[in-house]
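SUBJECT: A protein chain and its fold
Encoding: whole-number codes for local backbone shapes
RECORD BEGINS BELOW THIS LINE
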Amino acid sequence: MGKYGKWISGGLGWALFGPIGAILGFAIGSIFDSAQTPTKIYTGETSRNGFLVSLLVLVSAVMNADGRVLKSELSYVKDYFYKNFGASASREAILLLRDILKQSVPVKDVCKQVKENVDYHSRLQMLHFLFGIAQADGVVSPAELQIINEIAQYLGVETADFDSIKAMFIPDTDKYYKILEVSPSAANDEIKKAYRQMAIKYHPDKVSHLGEDVRQAAEQKFKMVNEAYEKIKKERGFN
């Protein structure tokens, strides 16, 4: 258990139970007596470490979707955690992910547990990261897109939000409009209104309760919303 100190020593809360807890127990070894561990204890509260561990579980499902785990994907995870959470967390994340990858993840059950314990804005941040993993090798494969789509549905992510995040990673002629969740035929005032709504929805402060490091990680998505708006403004010539 020592090598996973930061993950297990505190802050996991709800993630130590249910299907995610079972996966962690297998990956880490006997961190608790399975005979005495409740199979379902949910708090309804998002915790930082619970968020990160459940993210790794879903990451493993995406990485295994096309039947191969690429070095570029592992590097993406390692770099992400190093940049946002430090060297120690990065090392532990990769060690834990390698163990989780050896298992079959019950995606529907895991997503149900996540949905009951992680707020909506944090779930959107999860989806954004999963697309980043899928695109780490330069392309999102059909198998990866399918599993991410399933995860989004199980997490209760609205279609418009899914299409918006998807457009940030998969090229499309209407990419910037999809990011703002508007039609290319929308009037300028509609686009301005949509931008204001998206700026609120994806503002990093929405996940600030998970810690400053998670908040900083969410800034990429927020920047894409602003970039989409600036591109459309320039294209249409309005302020």
Q: What stands out?
A: Residues 212-236 form the longest helix (25 residues). The two ends are 56 Å apart (CA to CA). The chain has a mean pLDDT of 85.
